[in-house]
Each structure stands twice: as structure tokens, then as C-alpha cells.
Specification:
Blueprint lengths: L6 H53 L1 H6 L9 H11 L4 E6 L16 H18 L3 E4 L15 H16 L3 E8 L10 E5 L3 H17 L9 E3 L3 H5 L4 E8 L3 H7 L2 H23 L2
Parallel strand pairs: 1-2, 1-3, 3-6, 4-5
Antiparallel strand pairs: 4-6
Helix pairs in contact: 4-9, 6-9
Length: 283
């Protein structure tokens, strides 16, 4: 006849079961730890390989695919090296003001500034390209640089223009505009520069002089410093705003719409840019 299990034996069995359970918990925990370490090691290796691949891509494939490497943050010496490698004399950014929902100034005939700005910018691009410069347009079409669903379209548009300039690190930037004034008799081109920029002032002076002379301006204006225009204050490097003329002056509006006069205007701007760059390169 079997003897009933006593309390002592029951406690021993409970202790044994507890010990087995603890051993199992420890074993599972140790196994999970090894798996996590192996996974982390694999991820670390992948990150290292990806970083190396990205580095190689930026130095070779990515730059070749886009045509030009990102020069943001380069020194002038670095930019000079890039110019030699690219086979051009350097990059110039042209910024056709306004665009999209923003027409800018509208003349008495109904012509919108945004249309003329793009016309002048493209004509100027052709002349600079003939001189051996690589030209980048911030706004190559009638569209603005903003997202359709964006609430603050103008702010985003201006920020993206400056981002293009920052990325390209150009020799200089020229923003093309048409002017306005309550007095419709006021006329003539005028060039603005950031008031704290010596190079901007020098570039503005060169362009203003060429425009006054070549366009035979009756009441020539002087280039003028400004510390509030966004494109001048926030863009990197040397930048100027060229106001080609006044759309609020009926006679000048008619000239600004005339292709022959447009060609004279961009020729004068181009010559001013070339004079500035020549002075910059002279020993």
C-alpha cells in the first residue's frame, strides 16, 4: 500500500519546480540577449556600409548624375577648382522676380512684371552662356517656387530662391525686376545692393554705369544700398537687384515690351557683370 505524500515531500517538489522554472527563465533571457547583440551588430555593419556607399556616391555618381556637385559651404579656392574642372568660367544665378500667383507690378497695357522678368532673365542667360558662364535660373518658368497647398506662398517662394543660391554658391546673383512709382513721369533703370556688402556695391556700380551709358538714360540714377529686400539680405554671396525700368511710366513700359530695347537692356547688364568679374580677376 502506497504511503501518502507528506508535506515535506510536497515542499521539495515545489522547490525543484521553482528551480527548473528559474533555469528556464535564465536560459531564455540569455538567448534573447545574444539575439539582440547579433541584430545590433548587423545593423551597425549595415550603417557603416551605407555611410561608405553614400560617401562614394557624393564624390562620384551623384555629382555626375546632377552635372554639378553641391558646393554649399565651399571656400573661394574650392569654387575655383570646381570652375576649372567643369570647363566653365563659373556659375551665375539669375532670379526672375515674382511668378505664379504673384504678378508683381502691372503696366497700364496690362503686361505683368512676372512675364517681363522671365523674358529679360532668359535673354541675359543666353549672353552669359556665350561668354562661357554656367547660368542657373531660380525660376525657369512662369510658375512660382511654392507648393499649391502652402498658406504662406510668398514666404516659401523667397526661401526657395535663396536655397537655390545657397546650393549653387555662384560667383554672383542678379535678380531681375521692373519698377513702379506713384509719379508716372519717373523712369530709368536702377540697381540695388545689400547695404553691408562691399562686393554687392561694386557689382551694382558696374551694372548701373553700363545701363546709364548704353541706354542713354536722360536722368540717370545711381546704384543704391538697401538692407530690407529679402533676396539681398538673406541670399549667400554677392547679389544685386536690377530694376530694368518703370512699368508705371507709359513710355518706358512700351520700351520694356519692345524686343530690341530688351536686347539693349540685357546687353548692358551683361557688360556690367563682365566688367565686375574682370576687375575681380585683375591682379
Amino acid at each position: 500500500m502506497n504511503r501518502p505524500i507528506g508535506n515535506k515531500e510536497i515542499k521539495i517538489i515545489q522547490y525543484l519546480m521553482l528551480a527548473v522554472l528559474l533555469v528556464l527563465v535564465f536560459a531564455v533571457s540569455a538567448y534573447a540577449g545574444r539575439m539582440r547583440r547579433a541584430e545590433n551588430s548587423e545593423k551597425s555593419s549595415d550603417r557603416t556600409e551605407n555611410a561608405e556607399a553614400a560617401k562614394d556616391g557624393n564624390n562620384t555618381g551623384d555629382a555626375g548624375a546632377s552635372g554639378d556637385a553641391d558646393t554649399s559651404g565651399q571656400t573661394e579656392e574650392n569654387q575655383g577648382t570646381q570652375k576649372a574642372e567643369s570647363g566653365s568660367k563659373g556659375t551665375i544665378v539669375l532670379d526672375a522676380g515674382h511668378g505664379g500667383f504673384d504678378p508683381g507690378v502691372c503696366g497700364a497695357s496690362g503686361v505683368a512684371e512676372r512675364e517681363l522678368n522671365l523674358v529679360f532673365a532668359k535673354k541675359l542667360e543666353a549672353l552669359l552662356a556665350e561668354e562661357g558662364y554656367r547660368v542657373v535660373q531660380t525660376r525657369p518658368t512662369e510658375a512660382g517656387l511654392y507648393d499649391k497647398e502652402q498658406t504662406h506662398k510668398k514666404a516659401q517662394d523667397m526661401q526657395r530662391r535663396c536655397a537655390v543660391i545657397e546650393k549653387e554658391q555662384p560667383l554672383l546673383t542678379v535678380s531681375i525686376h521692373q519698377n513702379s512709382y506713384p509719379d508716372s513721369s519717373v523712369s530709368g533703370p536702377q540697381v540695388f545692393y545689400f547695404a553691408q556688402s562691399k562686393e554687392g556695391e561694386r557689382l551694382a556700380s558696374c551694372i548701373q554705369d553700363c545701363m546709364n551709358e548704353q541706354l542713354a538714360v536722360e536722368k540717370p540714377k545711381s546704384h543704391k544700398g538697401n538692407d530690407s529686400y529679402y533676396i539681398l539680405k538673406r541670399s549667400a554671396g554677392t547679389a544685386v537687384i536690377v530694376e530694368c525700368g518703370f512699368l508705371t511710366n507709359p513710355d518706358e513700359e512700351a520700351k520694356l515690351k519692345d524686343e530690341t530695347y530688351q536686347d539693349r537692356v540685357v546687353r548692358a547688364i551683361c557688360d556690367g557683370i563682365l566688367n565686375y568679374l574682370k576687375e575681380d580677376s585683375d591682379p
